[in-house]
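Complex 358.
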Amino acid sequence: MAITATISVPVSTPIHRSLPAVNLFRSSSSFAPPQRTFNYLNSRLVASSMSTEAPVKTTSSSAASSLNSGSGFLHFAKYHGLGNDFVLIDNRDSSEPKISSEKAVQICDRNFGVGADGVIFLLPGINGTDYTMRIFNSDGSEPEMCGNGVRCFAKFISQVENIHGRHSFTIHTGAGLIVPEVLEDGNVRVDMGEPVLKASDVPTKLPANKDGAVVKSELDVDGVIWNVTCVSMGNPHCITFSRKGSQSLLVDELKLAEIGPKFEHHEMFPARTNTEFVQVLFNSHLKMRVWERGAGATLACGTGACALVVAAVLEGHTGRNCTVDLPGGPLQIEWREEDNHVYMTGSADVVYYGSLPL
Ligand SMILES: N[C@@H](CCC[C@H](N)C(=O)O)C(=O)O
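Predicted structure with LBFN2T5F bound:
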């Protein structure tokens, strides 16, 4: 596939190159502040009562108005959350993604495409939510959720809807209701809902303990026994802090590309799995490397960081409030006792705007 792209870089004097003439990032006249009451069908998550300050919506945005579209072009924004990078597509005018999973694979290709860990679609909300998020991994598979992706998604909505100040949205995802809040400092705090520990729901075939969970169980990967805990944040995660009989992992020494795929495709994980290799630095500070289902080694995984803090608490390594160092930077994760929800706070940044011939 030949991909040619036009890009606009978000600097103070934007570079605008030959973009055709219809505003892609249309200012939505139907915008209303995020709703707080809705009838949501997926009961895994409960609506957050996060308070927000009134967002400010202005009439124009230089970044948004720099993106003009014409027929035959796919316009996108490239974002990253700690180096976990995504192509975001404004899909508010349709409930079906504008491009196929095959096209997403081509776009994600780092040599022949734009290059990304996934493609994310901003779709109309359903079940009373403000918006729907769908995502294709770089291999074309569709995961239920993406933590770094949802922070990028929130910043993307702020941009296309031209909202400033502190504000939050309700997002329908394959993992249920997710509530990101864009903070004054530009970081995004996300109510990621409750972790799922029941083995069959993660899903994993590993034998469960009396509570139905897989905590510090043994997993044989090509003759090496790893101690693993399995957690779903809507998508499946296998977390390991050590091999059997050895001390805490030194994650920088792992040959991730060699061992990651063996976890991902292990017969104990019928829906494949994301795997987090974790080193305990202190009782509130962890370091991780990740091998993602459908995307391989990435610089960060938000759902993975949430899942590994849950695993760290269950295994007795840390308290419920941790800093997680990922290859691309830190995330602050809290597994709150009062509501059993996991909260993730971190950055999300636009890289550039572009357009591709369809
Ligand atoms: N990078 C993401 C997770 C994306 C989905 C994952 N590859 C899967 O298939 O479950 C994150 O930040 O959570």
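The longest strand covers residues 73-81.
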